[in-house]
Amino acid sequence: MHHRKTITVCGAAAMALLCAGQVAAAYPTRAVRVVIPYPPGGGNDIIGRIVADELGKRLGQQVVVDNRAGGSTAIGAEHVARSAADGYTLLITSHTTYALLPNLRPKLGYDPQRDFEPVSLLATQSFALAVHPSLPATTVKQIIALAKARPGQMTFASAGAGTGTHFSGEQFKVLAGLDILHVPYKGGNTAITSVLSGETTMTFGSLSALSTFVTTKKLRIIAVTSARRSILDPKIPTIAESGLKGYEMTPWYGLTAPRGTPAAIVDRLNAAVVAVTQSAESRERMMKVGYEPEGSTPRQLAEHIKAELARYAKLIKAIGFTE
């Protein structure tokens, strides 16, 4: 009797696996919807549409983009977290959703680790520390020395409080032990303009936004904020290798599904997404607008989200930042 029960249980388990495999093999049988929790036109939207276009070709079904902006990405993220876990509603969003907001809003309507199935990283972006050419500093060490010699006198411009450029500057201040004033603006271009005019000392901006001014020698790039040199311009050193060990601030974008999405479907999506990030066409499209293609395994994305949650928690606590 005991043996018969064991066989029955094993048979049920095998049947479940067989059914899951059949579902994954057939998936998708209709259009897939990708939610982007930002309005059209921004960086997340650009990445999302590039991935959606190419993903549709590989899945053999239409992949529809659904922009659900609001709540600093929380509205779109909550919608996906509550959607059916069948692979037909996905989320393409940034570190803001998975690492920043959870550290700022204790009553957030989703949990980045509990409510989503990680599928893959999609892309990263390198910010760069840029100064006016008149500043007597060409290296990270020289800027740190200058800031220590002029406590409270130097400033850094950002695209606004709580943005990636803001946290890039705060991380720089904390790790180097500097007294530099943060000056928030309404957008990255305005922040860059403030450095061009001499209104502020430095800024952290995307390589693509800074490139024109560097070419015309109106700005000088000192180093990039990412952990490794950017493939967009490998000649530029990282802030960490330039003397500020442990420094890293890298905006990133990832694809997740609602928690409970069958593993076979997640694996199917992962294989398709990684192929997208490795294709010459997608890479060219992403790099042209300043992003670096970055595929991963589901486990690697899960570990990345966990590490980023801890990184932002530590920085937010250190600077006492609140929304």
Outline the structure in words.
- The structure is a single chain.
- By secondary structure, this protein is α/β, with parallel strands linked by helices.
- The chain has two domains: 29-124 and 252-319, Bordetella uptake gene, domain 1 (D-Maltodextrin-Binding Protein, domain 2, 3-Layer(aba) Sandwich), CATH 3.40.190; 127-224, D-Maltodextrin-Binding Protein, domain 2 (3-Layer(aba) Sandwich).
- Helices cover 46% and strands 18% of the residues.
- It is built from eleven helices and eleven strands.
- The chain has helices spanning 2-26, 43-59, 74-81, 95-104, 140-149, 164-176, 188-196, 207-215, 263-278, 280-288, 298-319, and strands at 32-36, 63-67, 89-94, 116-124, 127-131, 155-158, 181-184, 202-206, 220-224, 252-258, 292-293.
- The strands form two sheets. It has a six-stranded mixed beta sheet with strand order 2-1-3-10-4-11, sandwiched between helices.
- The radius of gyration is 22 Å and the shape is elongated.
In percent, how much strand structure appears in the residues?
Answer: 15-25%
Give the helix/strand class.
alpha/beta
Tell me the number of helical segments per DSSP (H or I, 4 or more residues long).
11
Q: Given the C-alpha coordinates, what overall shape results?
A: elongated
The protein's oligomeric status is: single chain
How much is the average pLDDT?
92
| CATH architecture term of the largest domain | 3-Layer(aba) Sandwich
Q: Unreliable segments (pLDDT under 50, ≥5 consecutive)?
A: none
Separation of the first and last Cα atoms: 63 Å
Order of helices and strands: HEHEHEHEEHEHEHEHEEHHEH
CATH class of the largest domain: Alpha Beta
Could you give the order of strands across the largest sheet? 2-1-3-10-4-11
What is the name of the CATH superfamily of the largest domain? Answer: Bordetella uptake gene, domain 1
The CATH topology of the largest domain corresponds to D-Maltodextrin-Binding Protein, domain 2
User: Could you describe the largest sheet, including whether it forms a barrel?
Assistant: 6 strands, mixed
Total beta strand runs = 11
Radius of gyration: 22 Å
Indicate the percent of residues in helices: 40-55%
Tally of domains: 2
